[in-house]
Structures are given as structure tokens and as C-alpha cells.
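Practice problem 4.
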């Protein structure tokens, strides 16, 4: 009897060892991980060439890891175990901070010269400002605190939040812009007047639509001070609409949505302004909100403007109003859903992806009346992507 049980046990183990990789490779599969926001590894086609050059076998480990049966369930269970019974304050490099998710930061022990970096970045921006003014336009820099910067108080006292470094970066950038006489809309004091946390997602690194609206109004107020008479969407003339969909924030996705974070993605309704839209030169649907297919599908910050686009163009066919050019990272997306209403034409560039022309070449060709650079404070001094103007 004992021998029979041993044989049965070994048979089950062998069956599992065979079934798991076979089902993982040949069973139902998905190509993209919604949680990790990436394309999953695929197995190289089986052929004599891929066998002899070793590519089939080298791809097997990654493919099995990405497509193992029940992968998302196992990873979600791991997060729940770490965050629940084990009470870990950091899981998957995400700090679990009292209902708010923030990135784990490694303490900075070196003392880089932020002042000089602020001077250098402001000098580069001044060249763009000078070009805009030579064409009769206006340049404005808009600074937005990133979520973990705005909600730094949710870091436990014993964990490094990066607040001191971020504050130094803010000071150096503000000083550099002031030294060059560049118009600067700093959203930190504006947000703090009414309570900064209401303007941010708890599980995503962006601000929410209400934060974007306050930013829109701050931009329009500054342009009014500079002599621009623009139509303004007032808050009493719009209505926020919360989507019923589950929210996949950039930070909550890292935890496979296994931690209870209360977030809602909102859109707004207001009086219609007809427009045509092009993305990367191709005509697309005339909308600034890309909605999920149904109420159960996940919603994310990509609802706004359909996510990052190398180039987006909206023409409201009102030639009496100024032309706008916006460039910046994804923080520009949500505020663009408001900005187009105040201009005859709005174009936006994400220099991380747009490569057809340099920013200066684009400005010379388009000749916008207003140019906005929108960046978050964690990227103020970065000379890459939307900080690289060459």
C-alpha cells in the first residue's frame, strides 16, 4: 500500500511538472499585461534555425515566466500576503502609505549642484522663449508637483521621501527661471491654498482632472495678466462625471490592484465646441476623452487625450483666437482637455516621441501665439525627453 501511494504521489508531481510548462506555453495567453503596462515575452518560433542558434531555448525562460498558468493570481496573492499578514511597508518598490501609494526612494547621499543645473535648464528655456518672442508669441513655463511630491506626508517617518531634494530642485528651478525673466506658473502654492491632496490620485503619479482644471485656470489667469483676452471655461458651466470603471493607476498596477486604493477617473461635460483632431498627422475621432469599452473595463489616466501622443492637433475653426503649442510629459494630457476650448488651434508635442523636427524648427514653422512647457517637479532638471530641445 505504501508503495502504491508513493507511485501515485510521484505520478501527480510529474504530471504537474509537465502540465504547467505545456499549458503555460500552449494554453490561453495574453500579449499585454494590463497591470505591468508592458508587452509580455513571447516564445521564438520553433524551427531548425532557432534550435541551432539557441534563440528558442533562450526565449523559453522569459516566456514561461510571463505566461505561467495563473500568473496574475499568484502575483496578486503575493502582494496581499506581503501587505496583509506580513505588514510590509514597501511591496514591489511601492510604499503603502495610509491609503496613498508612493514610490520607494533610495536616499541621496551625494550633493549635486542643483543651483547650476537650474541655471543651465533656464538658459535652454530662455532660448525657446526668445524664439517665441521673436515671432510675436509668448512663452510660459508651468510647474506641477508630482503625486509623491505633493503627498509626501504619507511616507512613514522612517522612510526616505526625497522631500529635501525635491524642495532644493524646486528652488533652483524657480531661481533659474526668475534669473532669465521667464514667466513661471508654479502650481505648488496654488494647490496648497485649497488643500493639495484633493487634486491627486492615490494610486497614480499624476494629478486628477480637478487638479488639471485648477492648472488650466492658473494658466488662463497668467495669460490674462499678459494681455490675452481668451474665453474661459468656468466651473459653474461644467459638470464632473465619475466613471464607474475600476481604476488602474500607475502605482496600483505595480501592486496588481491587490491593495484597496480609492480612486476615480473623472471626465467633464460642458457646452460643445466643434473641432477636428489629428494624432501624428492622421485624422482621429473628435474627442479629448478615450473612454473604456464598457463599465467593467479598466480606466486610467490614459482616458485624457488617449494617453501620450508624439503630436496631437485640435482645430476649433475659430481663426480669431490665438494658436497654442503645448509641450511636456503626460501631465499636459489632462489640462489639454480644457485648453483647446480657449484657443483657435491647439497643438501638443511630447518630445520623448516626436522626432520629425526639433522644437525650434516646429515653432518657426507653426508660429504659435502661446507656447506652454508643462513639467512636473521631479523632472524639472532633466535634460532628456521634454527637457531636450535640440
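Answer key:
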Amino acid at each position: 500500500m505504501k508503495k502504491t501511494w508513493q507511485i501515485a504521489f510521484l505520478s501527480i508531481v510529474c504530471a504537474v511538472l509537465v502540465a504547467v510548462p505545456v499549458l503555460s506555453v500552449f494554453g490561453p495567453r495574453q500579449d499585454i499585461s494590463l497591470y505591468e503596462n508592458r508587452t509580455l515575452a513571447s516564445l521564438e518560433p520553433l524551427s531548425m534555425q532557432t534550435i541551432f542558434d539557441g534563440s528558442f531555448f533562450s526565449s523559453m525562460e522569459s516566456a514561461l515566466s510571463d505566461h505561467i498558468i495563473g500568473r496574475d493570481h499568484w502575483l496578486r496573492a503575493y502582494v496581499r500576503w506581503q501587505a496583509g499578514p506580513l505588514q510590509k511597508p514597501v511591496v514591489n518598490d511601492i510604499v503603502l502609505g495610509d491609503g496613498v501609494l508612493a514610490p520607494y526612494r533610495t536616499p541621496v547621499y551625494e550633493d549635486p549642484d542643483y543651483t547650476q543645473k537650474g541655471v543651465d535648464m533656464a538658459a535652454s528655456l530662455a532660448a525657446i522663449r526668445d524664439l517665441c518672442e521673436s515671432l510675436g508669441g509668448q512663452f510660459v513655463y508651468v510647474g506641477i508637483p508630482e503625486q509623491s511630491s505633493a503627498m509626501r506626508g504619507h511616507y512613514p517617518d522612517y522612510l526616505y521621501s526625497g522631500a529635501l531634494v525635491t524642495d532644493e530642485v524646486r528652488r533652483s528651478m524657480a531661481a533659474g527661471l526668475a534669473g532669465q525673466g521667464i514667466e513661471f506658473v508654479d502650481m505648488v502654492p496654488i494647490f496648497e491654498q485649497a488643500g493639495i491632496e484633493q487634486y491627486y490620485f492615490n494610486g497614480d503619479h499624476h494629478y486628477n482632472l480637478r487638479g488639471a482644471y485648477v492648472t488650466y485656470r492658473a494658466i488662463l489667469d497668467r495669460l490674462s495678466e499678459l494681455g490675452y483676452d481668451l474665453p474661459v471655461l468656468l466651473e459653474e458651466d461644467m459638470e464632473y462625471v465619475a466613471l464607474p470603471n475600476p481604476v488602474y493607476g500607475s502605482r496600483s498596477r505595480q501592486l496588481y490592484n491587490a491593495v484597496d486604493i480609492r480612486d476615480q477617473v473623472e471626465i467633464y461635460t460642458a457646452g460643445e465646441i466643434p473641432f477636428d483632431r489629428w494624432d501624428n498627422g492622421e485624422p482621429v475621432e473628435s474627442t479629448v476623452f478615450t473612454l473604456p469599452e464598457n463599465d467593467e473595463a479598466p480606466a486610467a489616466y490614459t482616458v485624457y487625450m488617449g494617453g501620450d501622443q508624439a503630436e496631437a492637433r485640435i482645430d476649433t475653426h475659430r481663426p480669431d483666437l490665438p494658436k497654442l503649442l503645448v509641450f511636456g510629459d503626460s501631465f499636459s494630457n489632462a489640462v489639454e482637455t480644457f485648453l483647446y476650448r480657449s484657443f483657435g488651434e491647439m497643438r501638443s508635442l511630447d518630445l520623448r516621441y516626436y522626432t520629425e523636427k526639433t522644437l525650434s524648427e516646429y515653432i518657426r514653422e507653426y508660429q504659435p501665439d502661446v507656447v506652454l512647457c508643462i513639467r512636473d517637479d521631479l523632472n524639472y532638471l532633466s535634460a532628456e525627453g521634454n527637457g531636450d530641445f535640440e
